[in-house]
Design brief:
Length: 186
């Protein structure tokens, strides 16, 4: 494995860390209806677990309401149960055709809880980035020992990798601060 392949592989993993963080942050309730709040919920249908986005249409008629219309009406109760059992704290209203979710405004206490959760997600993202960096360094060391790259290339790789890690950590901080300010905005 040469220098550029090592760097490209590390870069791909770092981007996945950012994507995962963004997905986690999008799933947090901020007092507005968003499909990302529920689309990843696992629903027990046809004997298997399926993400909600695979079994229903999610629409947002206004900023405080979310409609979930399953393609098979028989799965309405399973969807309702999954929403009740989730940690979202939402009360589904089943009218026989669709489920309506009214998104309540966040209390100050809940906002503070969610900002702590944002910090936990950001820290988890940084841990993921550190793991990627360590794995990449191990691969570079192994490549150097097998004479695929030179010692100078290994040092250059470490430098370039650290620059990428610093950029990704800055992006994690940016996303976390943006989500926290979104949470605290009334």
């Amino acid at each position: 494995m040469n220098f550029s392949e090592l760097l490209a592989a590390a870069d791909t993993q770092l981007k996945k860390s950012i994507e995962h963080l963004c997905t986690e942050l999008a799933s947090l309730q901020v007092g507005r209806a968003s499909a990302s709040l529920v689309e990843g919920l696992n629903i027990e249908v046809y004997g298997t677990q399926q993400p909600l986005r695979n079994v229903a249409n999610i629409s947002i008629p206004d900023p405080k309401t979310l409609f979930i219309e399953p393609w098979d009406k028989a799965s309405l109760t399973a969807i309702e149960k999954a929403i009740r059992d989730s940690s979202l704290g939402l009360n589904p209203n089943n009218d026989g055709l669709r489920i309506a979710l009214n998104i309540p405004p966040l209390t100050e206490e809940r906002r503070l809880e969610l900002t702590k959760l944002v910090g936990e997600f950001a820290e988890s993202g940084k841990i993921s980035v550190r793991r990627v960096r360590e794995d990449a360094r191990k691969k570079a060391k192994a490549a150097k020992e097998s004479d695929e790259i030179s010692e100078d290339e290994e040092k250059l790789f470490d430098k370039k990798l650290q620059e990428k890690v610093d950029a990704v950590n800055a992006e994690i901080e940016k996303h976390a601060k943006q989500k926290e300010s979104e949470m605290l905005k009334i």
